């Protein structure tokens, strides 16, 4: 069951991916294409990730791993394995039929768990015997070191799909580098025993036309969703999502589309704006004033849209109907603010109202949170931060307790 009606209700169950050999398949040549800024040291990245998972467990959160969930889903439904492999191969954009056939044969002969890890790690050309080259395409594809690229961003489970109420929005990812992640999400949400009998409503689909990524979606309460019109999420996707959401019989009545700057530093709404307590948020000062917000409200037939230009505080106060406190990432100093936002200082993961997990490196913001009375759980972050995502980006809540 999916149950997420807020950003801050006590976290009961969360989906993570422990980083693996996909990080060791990164090279300087592919960093830009694969959306990483550096090559993390895997051993330390795993240690840091284990600290993250243990911090969650120590606070009563059930930690589920994507690779386990996917293995269990496919083992429960062997009849879909063939389609799953074909979808993966097709979306890895291999043009040569000879190579596609060889890849299929290779993957189908692995155990389900090994197959999933291989898909994530990337498949090098020397790992597979393709047989005699038959076409120019076969020979051309031979020049690149991978038949299928690694999927390092699967570390950021926030993005391929988003839990919204009792449903989900599966992402249409902005870049090809991340689109295969949503195949995994789709199969888990459809075939895992936890979901199969009563699958979550899908408010957005991975093959829809316009991009929408989970990091842009914040469930402010059981009636209101905030979504970033961002580098990664298109306003037409937001309208489609809102329409589907309002069609279902839920309490959601408002979608607030925040027009945020389109840059890598601000790639998703949750890189500049996360909730930490009732009426309390961390923000990057860049979105504080003169923010354009499109208020999308449910009506009898579809929805109305109103454009509002104002301060973030006013917009939130109006909709949440309570006093708002904004904590500015990095405080007043411009350099500190930009540096700590770059290292995900505004990307907090609330595990209960007023209790957040953050990266230890953002010490100025973290002290401000402590001063504001927030319980701050710091995790080590020297390697994890190299992929440009923080504790919220690395986690997808599946269940939270309801809040008043
Ligand atoms: N929600 C997030 O902001 N996720 C971080 C994603 C980082 C990843 N390297 C990306 O560029 O997609």
List keywords for this structure.
single chain; 404 residues; alpha/beta; five-stranded mixed β-sheet; 13 helices; 22% strand; globular; binds citrulline
Description:
The protein has 404 residues and is an alpha/beta fold. It is built from 13 helices and 19 strands. It has helices at residues 42-58, 66-76, 81-91, 97-108, 112-121, 136-141, 176-179, 181-191, 193-196, 235-247, 312-320, 334-342, 363-371, and strands spanning 11-16, 62-65, 123-124, 146-148, 161-164, 167-170, 201-204, 217-219, 224-229, 254-259, 273-277, 280-283, 291-298, 303-310, 325-328, 349-352, 355-359, 375-379, 396-400. Strands 8-9-10-13-14 form a 5-stranded mixed sheet, sandwiched between helices. Strands 2-1-19 form a 3-stranded mixed sheet. It has a 3-stranded mixed sheet with strand order 5-6-7. Strand 9, helix 10 and strand 10 (254-259) form a beta-alpha-beta unit. Helix 2 crosses helix 5 (112-121) and helix 3 packs across helix 4. The longest helix is centred in the N-terminal third of the chain and has 17 residues, at 42-58. The chain is globular. The mean pLDDT is 95. The structure holds citrulline (CIR). It comes from Peloplasma aerotolerans. Belongs to the arginine deiminase family. The active site is at 393 (amidino-cysteine intermediate).
């Amino acid at each position: 069951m999916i149950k997420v009606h807020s950003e801050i209700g006590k976290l009961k169950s969360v989906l993570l991916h422990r980083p693996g050999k996909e990080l060791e398949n990164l090279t300087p040549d592919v960093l830009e294409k694969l959306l990483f800024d550096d090559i993390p040291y895997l051993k330390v990245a795993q240690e840091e990730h284990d600290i993250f998972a243990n911090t969650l467990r120590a606070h009563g959160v059930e930690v589920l791993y994507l690779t386990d969930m996917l293995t269990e889903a496919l083992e429960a439904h062997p009849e879909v394995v063939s389609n799953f492999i074909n979808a993966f191969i097709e979306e890895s954009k291999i043009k040569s039929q000879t190579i596609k056939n060889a890849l299929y044969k290779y993957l189908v002969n692995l155990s389900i768990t090994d197959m999933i890890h291989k898909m994530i790690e990337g498949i090098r050309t020397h790992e597979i015997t393709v047989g005699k080259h038959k076409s120019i395409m076969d020979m051309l594809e031979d020049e690149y070191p991978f038949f299928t690229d690694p999927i390092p961003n699967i570390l950021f489970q926030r993005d391929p799909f988003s839990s919204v109420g009792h449903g989900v929005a599966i992402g249409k990812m902005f870049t090809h580098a991340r689109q295969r992640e949503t195949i995994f999400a789709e199969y888990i949400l459809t075939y895992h025993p936890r979901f199969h009998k009563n699958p979550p409503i899908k408010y957005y689909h991975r093959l829809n036309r316009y991009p929408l990524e989970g990091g842009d979606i914040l469930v402010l309460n059981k009636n209101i969703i905030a979504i970033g019109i961002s580098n990664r999420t298109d306003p037409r996707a937001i309208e489609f999502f809102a329409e589907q959401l309002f069609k279902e019989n839920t309490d959601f009545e408002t979608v607030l589309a925040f027009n945020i700057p389109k840059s890598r530093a601000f790639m998703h709404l949750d890189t500049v704006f996360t909730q930490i307590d009732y009426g309390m948020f961390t923000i990057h000062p860049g979105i504080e004033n003169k923010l354009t917000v499109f208020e999308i409200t449910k009506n009898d037939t579809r929805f109305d849209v109103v454009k509002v230009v104002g301060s973030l505080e006013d917009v939130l106060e109006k909709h949440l109907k309570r006093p708002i406190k904004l904590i500015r990432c990095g405080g007043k100093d411009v350099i500190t603010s930009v540096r700590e936002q770059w290292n995900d200082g505004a990307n907090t993961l609330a595990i209960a109202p007023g209790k957040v997990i953050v990266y230890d490196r953002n010490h100025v913001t973290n002290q401000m949170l402590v001063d504001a009375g927030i319980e701050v759980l710091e995790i080590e972050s020297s390697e994890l931060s190299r992929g440009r995502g923080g504790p919220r980006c690395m986690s997808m809540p599946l269940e939270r307790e309801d809040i008043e």
